[in-house]
Specification:
heterodimer, A: 360 residues, alpha+beta, Serine Threonine Protein Phosphatase 5, Tetratricopeptide repeat, 2 domains, 4-stranded antiparallel beta sheet, 13% strand, B: 400 residues, L,D-transpeptidase catalytic domain-like, Nuclear Transport Factor 2, Chain: A, 3 domains, 18 strands
């Protein structure tokens, strides 16, 4: 019982630390530029730049995380593992280094290590959806290996190939919500216009009061340390206190949100994607087409999906509305609850999603 | 309450059915150190029943560390992992539809192993078949094909003492072998006839092979054929095979084969294969063996008496040996006796093994020291005794 209470408190403290560091704009610019280089495939230059940057700030988490990403992209898994391992040792409260470690281990078919890393990610950050999804895939992969051994299946069969492809996909997925990944795209329009890194920082900050988890991916009874022992992220008070929105607008936004979640639950990929504005900020500034393809794959995956919101709070400011809620997602493979922030913009009388974030 | 928990519960119920259906009797009567994977396997299932998934997986990993090629263990591991990601409705479901038969086999193995673990043979009971071991037969093997179990007995001054039991596989199509290629395991009284070292065998047979004496005299008389029924091990990548897996051989895990085979005496160690072992209390066993020993001694004395009619009463109407029926056999003896003034017959090292099949007979083997006024010889003799009209009678007799 005691350790459950200690846990969020420690997380909170360290997260605050991170925010303090993140508030330096010069640093953000540099990292953003390096992120662009990485995105353009100029790996060598990106690495050179990040090394230069780190020579001045050897402890910097963002820089080191970026370096890990660059090394991963450069197909230097050994070096990338070293960077992420050290980073997770120095910042054990950050789920992303664990997650990325897991992805590299998974690529190397070291599924047991991948599993351990993801379980760490989830222990530090129970609502980290990417880690949950990845862990689901790793469990499935480990299970498949066990079945291969049990039933003497030919592991070079096609299903195994598909599985590997899935895991390859994870690398783009896993880096997406990473707080440390500099947003290389346009600066966010609505929230924190001047500081592109800030919304990411908000994600790092799991403001988690010691509150027993009421919805978690595992059932109540069996002890599943990866989830049960850790409290779920609870709805946090938004930093900017919302002024009451015009009732009509808020109702419209709620309707748009409901329609979006309904399309998602129905696995109506087209309908789901139609809720996104043209200038939707894809996570990690991924190309829109790539993002849509990935979403289509995830949303369209076989098996029932059910997504609903809880504790919805909407603030409307002219043609921009921010919806904060707790999202309960449930599919055949995964059940998660996470805090979501969705920024809507009004375009031709329709409320469309411009930004979608996990976090507070 | 989450769907997840219901899903897990469903899996648990499924796996648990393996254990729930079993009588828990005699579990505390283990009279030897538990070896093999059963204790750990049983713990895994107990943990699953208690909904302790994490601990169950840990226990399974420990099991697989000890037995890396234990397919059943790997299947359970797969289930425990997969249950974290999706709903499972059947045991080994993640193995895919194409592997349904293999999964069914492993489920059978799980049931067989757990059943055997939870129902050890009771103390003071012995398999009915081991009526008498000769003094130099140090061990005896009794197989129960339905339970997929082999029992090792030690000859403790004439009384069989249980030493250990092991999981075994038998014929794909069951037991009661009739003919060549029927993929069945013979039921009957046999013994180890040879020891084939692993160097002379393919990897398929594992750590060794021990041919047994199928078909025996009775099998041949009943027209049963086929050959090459062995006790043997498993391939190097396989800890154990499903309960029904072989072409008729009895297959043990290599470590188990090694453990029992070091006790084997070629030409001597009995291997009795049953569908389902009949157990006798030591008192009943004692009564049964004494009655038969008495009859054997009566036969010996009647032979010494040179009264062919008395001697002839010990032979069944169905008797057949060397092409002679009962009347011819007795008539021949009458003629032989006529040329003699005295006969002395001694029997030594008698062994008596009851047939476990539907046919009620006892295989009696002994060293016969025959002396008479004009001829003496020493031979190893084998007789098959059946119960006819409530009396033990000889139905076959010949050199062993």
């Amino acid at each position: 019982m005691a350790h459950k209470r200690f846990f969020p408190a420690r997380t909170l403290a360290l997260a605050a630390c991170a925010i303090a560091v993140l508030a330096m704009p010069a640093r953000a610019d540099t990292l953003q530029d390096i992120g662009k280089l990485l995105k353009q495939g100029q790996h060598a230059q990106a690495l050179e730049q990040v090394d230069k940057y780190l020579s001045g700030k050897p402890k910097d988490a963002q820089g080191r995380f970026l370096k890990g990403l660059i090394l991963t992209e450069m197909n230097k898994p050994g070096d990338a593992i070293a960077v992420f391992t050290k980073l997770s040792a120095d910042y054990p409260e950050l789920p992303e280094p664990y997650n990325n470690l897991a992805v590299i281990y998974a690529q190397q078919k070291q599924y047991d290590k991948a599993k351990q890393a993801l379980e760490m990610a989830i222990r530090t950050h129970p609502s980290y959806a990417t880690a949950h999804e990845n862990l689901g895939d790793i469990y499935a992969r480990l299970a498949s290996q066990a079945y291969d051994k049990a039933l003497q299946l030919d592991s070079s069969n096609s299903s195994a190939q598909t599985k590997l492809a899935t895991i390859k996909d994870l690398i783009s997925v896993n880096t997406r919500p990473g707080p440390a990944r500099p947003a290389a795209g346009k600066p966010p329009v609505v929230v924190a216009a001047a500081a592109p890194v800030e919304p990411k920082a908000a994600e790092v900050k799991p403001v988690e009061p010691p509150k027993p988890a009421e919805a978690k991916p595992a059932e109540v009874k069996p002890p599943e340390p990866k989830v049960v022992a850790t409290p779920a992220a609870a709805p946090a008070k938004s930093a900017e206190q919302a002024k009451p929105a015009a009732a009509g607008d808020a109702a419209e936004v709620t309707k748009a949100l409901d329609a979006w979640l309904a399309a998602w639950s129905k696995k109506d990929v087209k309908g789901y994607l139609s809720h996104y504005a043209k200038d939707f900020q894809t996570p990690g500034a991924e190309a829109r087409a790539a993002w849509e393809a990935e979403r289509a794959r995830r949303v369209g995956k076989p098996g029932a999906i059910h997504v609903r919101h809880e504790n919805l709070r909407i603030t409307v400011d002219g043609d921009t509305a921010t919806a904060r809620f707790r999202q309960h997602y449930q599919s055949a493979a995964l059940k998660t609850s996470s805090n979501k922030v969705v920024v809507f913009v009004r375009r031709d009388g329709r409320w469309l999603i411009q930004q979608e974030k996990i976090g507070n | 309450m989450t769907v997840t928990s219901l899903r897990r519960f469903a899996t648990a119920a499924l796996l648990a059915c393996a254990t729930l259906a079993l009588p828990a009797a005699a579990a505390n009567e283990a009279r030897y150190s538990d070896s093999g994977p059963e204790p750990q396997l049983a713990r895994v299932f107990d943990l699953i029943e208690d909904h302790k998934w994490e601990a169950a997986l840990d226990q399974t990993e420990a099991l697989l560390k000890a037995y890396p090629n234990f397919r059943l263990g790997n299947l359970i591991k797969g289930d425990l992992l997969l249950a974290r990601t999706r709903t499972l409705t059947t045991f080994g479901e993640g193995g895919g539809a194409a592997s349904r038969d293999k999964v069914a086999d492993l489920r059978e193995e799980a049931l067989a192993r757990l059943r055997a673990y939870k129902t050890k043979p009771a103390a003071n009971y012995v398999p009915r078949y081991l009526l008498q071991l000769r003094p130099d037969q140090k061990y005896a093997i009794v197989v129960d094909t339905q339970k997929a179990r082999l029992y090792l007995y030690h000859n403790d001054n004439g009384t069989p003492r249980f030493i250990a039991d092991y999981y075994v596989s038998h014929g794909k199509l069951g037991s009661d072998k009739l003919k060549e290629g029927d993929k069945k395991t013979p039921i009957g009284v046999y013994h180890v006839t040879a020891s084939l070292p692993r160097q002379k065998l393919g990897d398929f047979y594992g750590s060794g092979a021990f041919p047994i004496s199928y078909p025996n005299e009775w099998d041949k008389r009943m027209g049963r054929n086929g050959h090459g029924i062995w006790l043997h091990g498993t391939p190097s990548d396989t800890f154990s095979r499903p309960p029904k897996a072989s072409d008729g051989c009895v297959v043990l895990a290599n470590q188990d084969l090694d453990a029992i085979s070091k006790n084997f005496q070629v030409g001597l160690t009995p291997v009795i294969i049953s569908n389902s072992i009949e157990w006798l209390s030591l008192d009943d066993w004692q009564a049964e063996r004494k009655a038969l020993l008495g009859m054997i001694d009566e036969w010996r004395r009647d032979w010494e008496s040179m009264d062919a009619d008395h001697y002839g009463r010990h032979y069944s109407a169905k008797f057949k040996s060397d092409g002679q029926d009962q009347a011819q056999w007795v008539e021949h003896k009458r003629k032989v006796n006529a040329g003699k003034s005295w006969i002395k017959v001694a029997t030594q090292n008698i062994s008596m093994f009851r047939n476990p099949g539907r046919e009620e007979y006892v295989v009696v083997t002994f060293e016969q020291d025959y002396k008479s006024s004009n001829l003496s010889n020493v031979m190893k003799k084998r007789q098959y005794w059946i119960k006819e009209d409530g009396r033990w009678k000889i139905v076959f007799e010949g050199a062993a």
